[in-house]
Design brief:
alpha/beta; globular; three-stranded antiparallel sheet; seven-stranded mixed sheet; 14 strands
């Protein structure tokens, strides 16, 4: 119906292209590719940007979660409460640590884990809470912290979609004992491959995390505990260093584009997931509609690519069947209605207007469904 195309996102370096190329050339020329000066420098720079005392780079965001849990002594026989609405890797990381993920349903507005449901899910085996700052929107950390304090539970924050987000004015990742970040290429701060990091204010925990990511070694060939091989490589660290100075402006642009969407769709027939904290960094811009399949087809016919994050609640994934997960009806309903519209810093205002107009054109058709 149209020659115009709006892809969901673009992963090709843009305004940062020259800096990224220089970073790649610098690493190639150095001949040092694993756990070297680029990783060390990035860890310091990333920690400062996230408002955390320390950062430890690892291979993926999933590894970051699993290693934090392991470093806290959480494993076989323990339970970790988390959300049913996220990428499945949040729960899989708990299983990687040897613990059992327990799902507490979500807040119907915020779509992050509901603190009241956490309270109901606690058992004598519960050791930690893993809230996910979903779509860039921070979970209700004030209420979650109250629950954790009352039951003496650790909080491990999944910040994989929430670089630079704040919860109640506090940087995510610094509210619990540690926070996990991902640098998968689609993230707000993305590498040109996989990567992750853990941030913490606990110096002893950081030392153990560095040991666990590198086979449990205290020094070369001396393994004092069974660790893993999950090291952020020098190339990705250098690329992330090149991109990190852009992150503040990229975040501001995401917020501006999201505000433009909100104004354009305020009186429309789709429901926009509300902004419940001004610290939202809009990794994704999500709307809800009972006619999702029809809306997605309507937008595709106009050249607008959309995605669903996420179509299946984690407790219903076959990989989780063995942990006997509880049903989470609010999350299940959300998974049937949510749709992610394109939003990334390289988009023009006109792209948002074009998409919003297409969504508005769909609204009258909803009466037929």
């Amino acid at each position: 119906m149209t020659d115009r195309r709006v892809p969901f996102l673009s992963l090709v370096p843009g305004e940062d292209a020259a800096e990224v190329k220089r970073a790649i050339d610098r690493v190639v020329a150095s001949g040092w590719f694993v756990l070297g000066p680029e990783v060390e420098a990035f860890e310091a720079e990333f920690a400062a940007a996230m408002g955390a005392p320390r950062a430890v780079g690892v291979g993926t965001g999933t590894d970051a979660i699993a290693l934090i849990l392991r470093a806290l002594g959480i494993g076989d026989g323990d339970e970790v409460i988390t959300t049913p609405l996220s990428a499945a890797y949040s729960a899989l990381a708990i299983m990687m640590a040897g613990a059992r993920p327990v799902f507490a349903d979500i807040d119907p507005e915020r779509l992050t884990i509901d603190p009241d449901r956490i309270d109901e899910a606690i058992t004598p085996r519960t050791r930690a809470i893993l809230p996910v700052h979903l779509y860039g929107q921070p979970a209700d950390m004030t209420a979650i912290a109250r629950v954790a304090a009352r039951h003496r539970l650790a909080i491990v924050e999944d910040c994989c979609q929430a670089h630079l987000a704040t919860a109640g004015g506090r940087p995510v990742g610094t509210i619990g004992v540690a926070g996990a970040f991902s640098f998968y290429p689609t993230k707000n701060l993305g590498a040109l491959g996989d990567g992750g990091a853990m941030v913490t204010g606990d110096a002893a925990l950081a030392v153990r995390l560095k040991r666990l990511r590198n086979g449990g070694q205290t020094d070369r060939y001396r393994h004092v505990e069974p660790g893993v091989n999950s090291r952020l490589d020098e190339m990705q660290a250098a690329i992330l260093r090149a991109r990190l100075p852009y992150l503040t402006n990229w975040t501001a642009r995401r917020r501006a584009l999201a505000a433009r969407y909100r104004r354009a769709l305020a009186a429309d027939g789709v429901d926009v997931v509300p902004e419940c904290d001004t610290g939202h960094v809009y990794h994704l811009f999500v709307v809800r509609t009972a006619a999702r399949r029809e809306l997605q087809a309507h937008l595709a016919a106009r050249g607008i690519e959309t995605l669903i994050h996420y179509p299946v609640p984690i407790p219903r994934q076959p990989a989780l069947a063995g942990v006997d997960p509880a049903e989470c009806p609010i999350a299940s309903r959300a998974c049937e209605e949510i749709l992610s519209l394109p939003l990334h810093p390289a988009m023009a205002d006109g792209d948002i207007d074009f998409i919003a107009e297409a969504v508005r054109a769909f609204a009258p058709q909803r009466q037929a469904f």
